[in-house]
Amino acid sequence: MLLYEVNLTVDGETAPRYSSWLREHIREMLGLDGFEAAVWYTTSDDGDTAPAPDEPTGERAWTVQYQVRDRDALQAYFDEHADELQEAGPEHGDHVAADRRVLEQKRLFQG
């Protein structure tokens, strides 16, 4: 299994509209072959405290992690869907920033 992670920074004015779109976008992504689950997180750059609740007018930092079955499914997304789906968001200009990365599980440790 792989994780495909999208880190978003959304300004407060854009956040309500973008949030509505993002919920539908996640559902669309889960309709793709090999995309098995997704988790939407509120994130914080401060590793010593829990993220604060979203403020009505404040900037949002969100992370969406998609669980992807295997490399072939992720590569098919990149080759066939990524450009279209990434550009399908509402017009956001400088109001939304996105970074993406792929994580592959190396080892699982359990207590």
Q: Can you describe what's shown?
A:
- With 111 residues, this protein is an alpha+beta fold.
- The chain has one domain: Alpha-Beta Plaits (2-Layer Sandwich).
- The chain is 28% helix and 32% strand.
- The longest helix is centred in the N-terminal third of the chain and has 16 residues.
- The protein is globular, with a radius of gyration of 15 Å.
- The model has no long low-confidence stretch (mean pLDDT 89).
- InterPro entries: DUF4286 (IPR025563).
- Pfam families: DUF4286 (PF14114).
- It comes from Salinibacter ruber.
The structure class reads: alpha+beta
Q: Name the overall outline.
A: globular
Distance between the termini: 21 Å
The tally of beta strands, per DSSP, is 4
Helix-strand string: EHEEHHE
Topology-level CATH name: Alpha-Beta Plaits
- CATH-level-2 architecture: 2-Layer Sandwich
Strand order of the largest sheet: 2-3-1-4
CATH class: Alpha Beta
Organism: Salinibacter ruber
Protein name: DUF4286 domain-containing protein
Descriptive tags:
single chain; about 110 residues; Alpha-Beta Plaits; 4-stranded antiparallel sheet; 4 strands; DUF4286 domain-containing protein; DUF4286
Short description:
With 111 residues, the chain is of the alpha+beta class. The protein has helices at residues 15-30, 71-80, 82-86; strands at 2-10, 35-42, 60-68, 96-104.
